[in-house]
Every structure is written in C-alpha cells, then in structure tokens.
Specification:
247 residues, Rossmann fold, DNA polymerase, domain 1, six-stranded parallel sheet, metal ion binding, phosphoprotein
Length: 247
C-alpha cells in the first residue's frame, strides 16, 4: 500500500458526501425526523411511535435516494402511501410529497446553518489528488452541488454523480452499485481500480456488489461491525487515519 492507505491498483477514489466529506448526515437526520414525526403524529395521534434518529435513520434512509428512504421507513411501520409525482407539493401525503417536505426542511437548514466539511476528509482528498489519483463524489442527494459549494469542496472533484445525475441517467440508487459504477466510468477506470469511501450500510452494499478494488467504511455512527459485515475492507473513524496508517 502507498501512503494513502490504499492498494497500489487503485487509480480513482469515489467518495460519498454526507457523513464522509461533510457534516450533513446530522442535518439530514433532523430533517427526516421532523418530517416523519409530523406525519406520524397526524396519522396516529399523540401516542405515535417517533422516528428513531439513530436506528431508523441508519436502517431505512441513510445513503438511499430520497423516495426510496420514504418507502423503506413507511414499509417498516406497515404504511403504504400513494407514490405521487416528483413535484408533489410538500403538504401532500404521498411518497414524493413527504420526500419533498424533507428536502424543503433540509435546504432551509443548509441556508441557515451552513455546511461544514470534516477537516480530516479534506486533508485526505487533497493528498489523493496530489498523488495523481482522480476523484469523484457519489451521493444520493439532489442537493450535492449546493452542499459542496457551501462547504468549499467543489474544486476537489473531477466528477459528481448525485441524485440529479442519477435521475437523468435513470440510475438506481444505493444499495445498487450503479452510481458508483457511473463515476468510475466517467473517470475512465474499471471498478477494480477504484476505491469506494462510504459511511452508510447501503453504500457498503453498493461497494461490495460493484466489485470495486477497495471499500473503506467510515465509522461516524458507531457501527464498525456492521460496516465490515456489509463489505468494508477496512473501517476508520476518519479518513485522515489512512494517511497516518500509510506513513
């Protein structure tokens, strides 16, 4: 392994955004909880069981495209809503309506609170680029451009495959590997020559099923064992640990 903590075969690095590069996982979590709790309170009354900001978030929505997250969580509660349309208004109780409600809350939080990058991740991406490796962001978020811009990271990546690009190309989201495969293709490398960096279990599944050269699990939520079980070759608490391990 070189000083980046990666096998020599790796020529490109594919980074998830929320929770790996930026401290937005918590913002997403809050927006999901507000959205689902308000919906459940109206549907089931004051005795409703709230959205669990850790267990439900990790299991059903983290790393998934927005509508998939809505479907997965509602199915866990035995709730089946109409799909609605991509542009369903946020006040409409459909899959896309709830997703759009969550997105409106998220964008408001980004505007009012801003977005912070993990310093260790920035240092690692800069080291990767200095070593001549290509870089991509692979995110389920349709707001990746706004988040990267707010965090000052947009210049660090050669390719961005996000929720907008996935919709345009009709790519299924994580846990399917298609968005990561598209990033590798756009960078001109085979999957076996690319490393995936993820903090979500759905992202681990995508890295494993896509047969990528190396899969790095970033343990931001105390789920190191689960990350390994879902396909991580190595688990770190912060990407800077890879630089320190490679020295």
């Amino acid at each position: 392994m070189r000083k980046l903590g990666l096998p020599e075969v790796v020529r490109a690095c594919l980074f998830d955004m929320d929770g790996v590069l930026t401290k937005t996982a918590e913002v997403h979590d809050k927006a999901w909880k507000e959205t689902f709790d308000e919906f459940l309170r109206r549907r089931e009354g004051p005795g409703f069981r709230p959205f669990d900001a850790v267990a439900d978030y990790d299991e059903y929505v983290d790393g998934r495209p927005r509508a998939d997250g809505v479907r997965a969580f509602l199915a866990s509660r035995g709730i089946d809503l109409p799909e609605g349309d991509d542009d369903s208004p946020p006040e409409l109780d459909t899959v896309h309506g709830l997703g759009n409600r969550k997105n409106a809350l998220l964008l408001e939080k980004i505007r009012t609170e801003g977005v912070e990058a993990y310093p260790g991740s920035v240092r690692y991406v800069e080291a990767v680029r200095a070593a001549g490796l290509s870089t991509a962001v692979v995110s389920s978020s349709a707001n990746a451009h706004d988040v990267l811009t707010s965090a000052g990271l947009q210049a660090l990546f050669d390719v961005r495959i996000d929720g907008v690009v996935a919709a345009e190309r009709r790519l299924p989201g994580k846990p399917h590997p298609d968005t990561f495969l598209a990033a590798a293709h756009d960078l001109g490398v085979e999957p076996g020559a690319a490393a995936v960096f993820e903090d979500a279990l759905a992202g681990m599944d995508a890295g494993r099923s896509g047969h990528f050269g190396y899969v790095v699990g970033v343990n931001r939520a105390g789920q190191a064992d689960a990350l390994r079980e879902h396909g991580a070759d190595i688990v770190v608490g912060d990407l800077v640990e890879l630089l320190e391990a490679g020295m």
